[in-house]
Automatic annotation (TrEMBL), chains A, B:
Source taxon at top rank: Bacteria
Domain Nicotinate phosphoribosyltransferase N-terminal: 7-131
InterPro entries named among the record's database cross-references: Aldolase_TIM, NAPRTase_N, Nic_PRibTrfase-Fam, Nic_PRibTrfase_pncB, Nicotinate_pribotase-like_C
Protein name in the entry: Nicotinate phosphoribosyltransferase
Substrates-to-products reaction catalysed: 5-phospho-alpha-D-ribose 1-diphosphate + nicotinate + ATP + H2O = nicotinate beta-D-ribonucleotide + ADP + phosphate + diphosphate
Enzyme class: ligase
Description of post-translational modifications: Transiently phosphorylated on a His residue during the reaction cycle. Phosphorylation strongly increases the affinity for substrates and increases the rate of nicotinate D-ribonucleotide production. Dephosphorylation regenerates the low-affinity form of the enzyme, leading to product release.
Family, as annotated: Belongs to the NAPRTase family.
Keywords: Glycosyltransferase, Ligase, Phosphoprotein, Pyridine nucleotide biosynthesis, Transferase
Pathway: Cofactor biosynthesis; NAD(+) biosynthesis; nicotinate D-ribonucleotide from nicotinate: step 1/1
Function: Catalyzes the first step in the biosynthesis of NAD from nicotinic acid, the ATP-dependent synthesis of beta-nicotinate D-ribonucleotide from nicotinate and 5-phospho-D-ribose 1-phosphate.
Length: 439, 439
């Protein structure tokens, strides 16, 4: 693993810079925007995540000598471009939606300004981070609302790439999960970590009882015992015998959860373990979590579905040039005009969320900037400006970075969710809960 | 980014080790197996990928001082466990399917042997790598067969986590893709890289013609020009005017591909550019690639679908304890017995592919080892043994590592695919093309 993020990118970013340097167009001031054309899967809203990570990726986008040598050996770019790359660091400005914010089709989630060459190089890594992290956060937010206040832990590390797992744990926490099983997410991003035990631990020991005794001896009676390795009622009885009625929790990872949970609750209560919680973890997603809402479940563990975006593992955001200066320094708005739903809207956008008098979100309002004019579009009455400055002169604002930035994103997410109208929380597919309007 | 992989794991792996050390069971010799209970999405076969990466992850699983301090500060494990972890390195044996091999439900893809503690710690990171890389390789193999010999390039880096993108490029190449857009995959794993240009490059220039001239000047007439930014017929005419009939290729990224491709081919031919190739890249998956089989497409670029496993982004493999020694040194086969389709089969398995006289694969044959006996199950007539030694004494066999190992995996994949019966290449959902039998 390397600290540099400079080659986590598509070859064409480098060859476009190479061609633009030769053509004399590489230094044209440009504006790129990141947006999603639609919300995947008929989702009612999307959640922006990855901002803190992508700002770090921008700061780490410096070419090492090894990377430069490889680009040279492979003849990917020519000598003048290699010289330019050797000194590369992004010096432009990044504004965008605060991490944790809600977004809708067309929302200008990120605005990247600088020369064409310095901005275009960042395309792939910015999109990789935003598309994955936002897909996870969007799925996670749906699970959280389906859980109706019960805690949900992210346990999906084994179901996604090993570094994506760290990002997923972070994104799920921003979207309201209570904890993760992923230790690196704890160390790197300050996400609270949790864990229970696996079937292997029970199977290692000569009896289930010995396994429970070993776990309670090491982790205390507050631990969570896994009760479905052999026979659930037998295991629940043993668990309470071993740990006493102060046993923290039992975990069920298989079977018909609704009936099992009811039976285990009754059995725990009959054994006097009325405060022992029940955690369920078997291939849950937002729909199965919702279906357990009338069961006496105390906590959920969600794995595969959240780290894979619950059917939509990439958020579908794109990075598009919307304006640039020409040789006379005049700004030109640009857009792809072609067929197939892939056209874009030229010009730099500013974004606002219009709220009702009682603070309920009503619309996503976009205004296109008149480049060169002094007056930037400003929020009107009952509008909240959605863009914040993320990096200036190429330097990320430290507020958004590291564990503190992650915590801030989680708080901002909760506040933004609280503005949404009730229809946002319908799990069924449909239209975005807010319209995106240009005005 | 850190070189250590030790915290890319679930907290419970560490707390199970903690409890087992205290209980005196941590050093019991154990056998864990990785297998998939089913093939996702009614796929006819699965493709093993990630082996070369996971062996590197095992070698890099050493706790740094920072990691140990964090585990201590967070009170995740106790002092004796921290001392044990400070010296941790895996010393056991790993056997398994050669990377690129085909697998079926129940195939023992990886067999990890050592003490319980040293093996259980590896669970999460091994599964993260195998589940993601195999999901990508399985999707990629289907695209390759749908493309019927036409080259397919992987271009999905922006649609998955930034490090998963590197792994995906590698997995897709193993499964028969011809190249990737991802530069780090080129540098790290020796995957051939390729690229064209983005709409932004056309939009940056004052006219499409200027953009084409700039690209051809830098990259030569063999380059691929993107012709769908404005009007396709106009762009095709300009492209041939600028580059001449020796133009390498044009790329179409939107619209109704079947009709566009036919029109562009006719236009290119009428302009004398009969050797100019047509590359298409618009949200393709195995089904849309197959539907273009009668179109004069020369090459495909596939992004989102391949890096997200074409609807199945995790292969669903699990890591299960199947045998361990007891305090008397006797081997005990173990298995989870619970309900809900999550039971497992105890005992260490050996795997063979039964072939017909003409070399066509007929069955996945598994035999359970009598632990302690000297005779290991051996291949019978017309069977191919599927397990190879991947690591011995904790040290990965260098054959499987790096660019050379990746190339070997690609070659092995092609050979294993050539054994499959024709039904394997049906894209529709159905049963695995080979039965898995215990005998």
């Amino acid at each position: 693993m390397t600290d540099s993020t400079a080659l986590l990118t598509d070859r064409y970013e480098y060859t476009m810079v190479d061609a633009a340097i030769q053509a004399g167009t590489a230094e044209r001031q440009s504006v790129f925007e990141v947006f999603g054309r639609r919300l995947s899967g008929g989702r009612r809203y999307g959640v922006v995540a990855g901002t803190g990570r992508l700002l770090q990726a921008v700061a780490d986008f410096r070419l090492t000598d090894d990377e430069l040598s490889w680009l040279s050996d492979e003849h990917i770019v020519r000598r003048p471009t290699l010289d330019w790359l050797a000194d590369y660091r992004f010096t432009g400005r990044i504004t965008g939606y605060q991490e944790g914010e809600i977004y809708f089709p067309g929302s200008p989630i990120l605005v990247v300004e600088g020369t064409f060459a310095e901005c275009v190089l960042l395309e792939t890594v910015l999109l990789s981070v935003l598309n994955y992290d936002s897909a996870v956060a969007t799925a996670a937010a749906r699970v959280v609302s389906a859980a109706s206040g019960r805690p949900v832990a992210e346990m999906g590390s084994r179901r996604t790439g090993e570094w994506s797992a760290v990002a997923a744990a972070r994104a799920a926490w921003i979207a309201g999960f209570s904890a993760t099983s992923n230790l690196e997410a704890g160390r790197r991003w300050g996400v609270p970590t949790m864990g229970t035990a696996a079937h292997a631990f029970t199977l290692l020991h000569d009896t289930e009882e010995e396994a429970f005794r070993a776990q309670v001896a090491a982790l205390g009676t507050g631990t969570t015992l896994l009760v479905d390795t052999f026979d659930v009622p037998t295991a629940v009885r043993r668990a309470v015998e071993v740990a006493g009625p102060e046993l923290g929790a039992v975990r069920i990872d298989s079977g018909d959860l609704a009936s099992q949970v009811a039976e285990v609750r009754a059995q725990l209560d009959s054994l006097g373990a009325t405060k022992t919680r029940i955690t369920v973890t078997s291939d849950l997603d937002e729909y199965s979590v919702a279906s357990l809402s009338s069961s006496p479940v105390d906590a959920y563990g969600v794995g595969t579905s959240v780290v894979t975006g619950s059917g939509y593992p990439a958020a579908g955001m794109v990075y598009k040039l919307v304006a640039h200066q020409d040789d006379q320094g005049e700004w030109v708005s640009v857009a792809k005009k072609s067929s197939g739903g892939k056209s874009s809207v030229g010009g730099r956008k500013h974004a606002f969320r219009r709220l009702s008098d009682s603070g309920v979100a009503r619309a996503e309002v976009l205004r296109i900037e008149e480049h060169g004019s002094d007056s930037h579009p400003a929020p009107k009455h009952a509008e909240r400006a959605l863009h914040v400055t993320l990096a200036e002169g190429g330097v990320p604002d430290p507020r958004w970075l590291g564990p503190e930035g992650t915590k801030l994103a989680r708080e901002h997410h909760a506040a933004a969710m609280a503005e949404l109208p009730p229809d946002a929380f319908r799990l069924s597919g449909g239209d975005p809960v807010l319209p995106t309007v240009y005005k």
